[in-house]
Specification:
Helix 6 crosses helix 7, helix 6 (166-177) crosses helix 8 (202-214) and helix 7 packs across helix 8. The protein has 2 domains: 4-119, Response regulator (Rossmann fold), CATH 3.40.50.2300; 140-242, Orthogonal Bundle (Arc Repressor Mutant, subunit A), CATH 1.10.10.10. It is of the alpha/beta class. A 5-stranded parallel beta sheet has the order 2-1-3-4-5, sandwiched between helices. It contains 9 helices and 12 strands. It binds calcium ion.
Length: 243
């Protein structure tokens, strides 16, 4: 089934051009030019991916993103202006999976769309787009008593709900999707923080520390293992894990 993409862009020419290119690639595409209307559509229908311009009439893209993440979390790629660094940071913090700077090359946009669809299968087709072994049909990743419900953006340990920031959530999700595979700090940085943090791998150590303080330390388990000089890994759950 073709992935369904919503293009939110008020510059009609760009919206039309993007729509034609995406249709040509075989995606199902709808376009909308106002932030308010976009939010309405995105909450009512389940899109596999949303391309969201930030500068929009009525309701700006970041506000649309924040409300959408509360009401119906959906993978979002932001379209940003070249010099709008703060927009990119706020956008990723608010839950966008990626951004692309305008004007963009269509090949780059298509590549980012393919990656986003692969890494973030939306509700309804979770798992279909990837070979992840540990994600069940509802999009839930587990490690013993811990479960990460990706579509609902919720993490539980047994019946305790764990509150994570977007970055912590993305980090845990990335580690769980790659269970038993050691991920380098560079890989984690790219997946969790995006390209603008290249080289700042100590950011990853900080997020690992936050995760451990919220999970390992609280529940007395050793979930995230450090592989010295390489990176981090979550190994498969073993019954004797609980100390
Ligand atoms: Ca615009």
């Amino acid at each position: 089934m073709a992935a369904k993409i919503l293009v939110v862009e008020d510059e009609e020419k760009l919206a039309r051009f993007t729509q034609l290119e995406l249709l040509h690639e075989g995606y199902e595409v709808e376009t909308v030019g106002s932030g308010r209307k976009a939010l309405e559509m995105a909450v009512q229908h389940q899109y596999d991916l949303i391309l969201l311009d930030i500068m929009l009439p009525e309701l700006n893209g970041l506000e649309v993103l924040r409300r959408l993440m509360k009401e119906r979390p959906t993978p979002v790629i932001l379209l940003t202006a070249r010099d709008a660094v703060m927009d990119k940071v706020s956008g990723l913090d608010a839950g966008a999976v990626d951004y692309i700077t305008k004007p963009f090359a269509i090949e780059e946009l298509l590549a980012r769309i393919r990656v986003a669809l692969k890494l973030h299968p939306a509700v309804g087709n979770a798992g279909a787009a990837s070979a992840e072994g540990s994600r069940d049909e509802k999009g839930v990743l587990t490690w013993g008593p811990l479960s990460l419900d990706d579509p609902r953006h919720k993490v539980l340990y047994g019946t305790h709900e764990i509150t994570l920031t977007n970055r912590e959530f993305l980090m845990l999700k990335t580690l769980l999707e790659n269970k038993d595979i050691v991920l380098s700090r560079d890989t984690l940085l790219e997946r969790v923080c995006g390209y603008e943090y290249v080289g700042e791998t100590n950011v990853i150590d900080v997020y690992i520390r936050y995760l451990r303080s919220k999970i390992d330390d609280v529940f007395g388990v050793k979930m995230i293992h450090t592989v010295r000089g390489v990176g981090y890994v979550i190994k498969p759950w073993e019954e004797d894990e609980q100390k």
